[in-house]
Specification:
11 helices; alpha/beta; 16 strands; 431 residues
């Protein structure tokens, strides 16, 4: 037995209502004058309390009506053998389709109860949304079908592991991968200038081509006091020697080192700024360097709005904070300029505003069939579960409740008729 709305079972407490009514409501006795009792001296009336329930059958019917109504509201589903067999013979299928793949072939399987297609920026995103939909599907064998050319990197073992064990997983290759593909990577900035890069994927071979692309401005503007400027310039040269990615168009960072932060700071509202701050806070090297830094050299770093804490020192005091000002992302560092925090923060800021282009989507080598077979698994037998639209057995309970309503009405009429007949008989006897 499973329940679609188990919270309704609290309504069973209403069964106590008719019992309390039968205990508390007292019937008033009718006064009958007997001529032969007029000469008896009156006595004080003794208070009597009823301790027995009157009309026990009627009380049982009323209590049963309330109990069955509460159970019906809870929506019981009786998992009978026939119902389990019906669940095991139907299939609910989620189809995740790659943007490069064509439409999947229509299924001719009569057992397919429901099918929904999911397309997204990546197969991992489509699988996540498909699993969420299957979690709320009606009881049935649940299947996940991935339709894609299935290049290497399009789906990983971690993506398959996130699919619950009861859901079957199958793969269908659709579309063809090109034999060769060339894509542009993010440009990088060095001490000598800007370098444009392209990568060519040719079967299982990968080649990268670099070419000078002028001397584009750095994506980071640094503000520092004159005394600290030579140290900051040396830190920047060290970072450029390892190459830093160029920022996407329209993204600017103003780094403040050893100076007072701008008073015109604003809350961060641009999505790219929020994403950049999130990348900075997740940078493991920056967190480690900040935890080993000493006390802030430029006074107290504020974390009050609109400033957002990026990293703290070993004692937990704010060391790096970020906000927005004049369309740029402002990052304030309280660490001394010669600190290791300075070059690591410069590199982390450059990485945070880079487009982050990846060659994974341009892969031309497919995932081996042996790997796909290892990830493939059948759907498990469905277990009793609730789902929107699944029929329950409450209608039969409501029919019983309606029948008890009729029985209760018949019993009350019979009791009224019997009470009237008894009163008439007593009145005739007295007369």
């Amino acid at each position: 037995m499973i329940w679609t709305s188990p919270a309704a079972l609290f309504g069973l407490a209403a069964v106590a209502a008719p019992i309390l009514i039968h205990l508390l409501v007292q019937r008033r006795a009718e006064r009958l004058r007997f001529p032969t009792l007029r000469f008896l001296a009156p006595t004080r009336l003794a208070r009597a309390r009823r301790r027995l329930l009157d009309d026990a059958p009627l009380l049982a019917v009323r209590a049963s009506m309330l109990a069955l109504a509460a159970v019906a509201l809870a929506g019981p589903i009786l998992a009978t053998a026939s119902r389990r067999d019906a669940w095991s013979r139907r299939i609910v299928r989620a189809v995740v389709v790659d943007g490069a793949a064509g439409a999947p072939a229509p299924s001719s399987d009569a057992a397919v109860h429901e099918v929904r297609e999911f397309r997204g920026p990546s197969l991992a995103d489509g699988i996540r949304r498909a699993v969420a939909w299957l979690d709320h599907a009606p009881p049935a064998k649940r299947e996940l079908l991935v339709v894609s050319p299935l290049p290497i990197g399009a789906i990983t073992a971690a993506d398959v592991a996130r699919v619950p064990a009861g859901i079957g997983v199958t793969f269908e290759r659709s579309g063809r991968l090109p034999a060769q593909r060339t894509v542009a990577l993010d440009s990088v900035r060095t001490a000598a200038g800007t370098i444009a890069r392209t990568v060519t994927l040719d079967g299982d071979r990968t080649s990268v081509r670099e070419s000078a692309s002028g001397n584009m401005a750095l994506p980071i503007e640094i503000a520092a006091p004159p005394a600290a400027r030579p140290v900051v310039d040396a830190a920047l040269e060290a970072v450029l020697s390892r190459r830093i990615p160029m920022a996407a168009a329209g993204r600017r960072v103003r780094m403040v080192i050893g100076e007072a932060p701008p008073t015109a700071a604003e809350p961060i509202r641009e999505p790219w700024m929020a994403d950049a701050v999130a990348r900075l806070t997740r940078d493991a090297d920056l967190r480690d360097a900040a935890s080993r830094a000493g006390a802030p050299a430029s006074g107290s770093i504020s974390t009050r709005a609109p400033w957002i804490l990026v990293a703290g020192d070993a004692t937990g005091r704010p060391l790096v904070a970020a906000a927005a000002a004049s369309g740029a992302l402002v990052v304030v560092s309280g660490a001394p300029a010669p600190s290791i925090v300075t070059p690591i923060l410069l590199r982390a800021a450059a990485n945070a505003v880079a487009p982050g282009a990846s060659v994974g989507e341009a892969e031309v080598v497919p995932i081996p069939d042996a790997q796909l077979r290892a990830w493939t698994r059948p759907a498990a037998q469905p277990s009793p579960r609730t789902a929107p639209g699944e029929s329950d057995d409450r209608r039969w309970l409501w029919l019983i409740v309606l029948g008890l309503f009729g029985i209760e009405e018949w019993m009350r009429r019979r009791l009224r008729a019997g009470s009237s007949a008894t009163t008439a008989t007593e009145a005739a006897r007295v007369a």
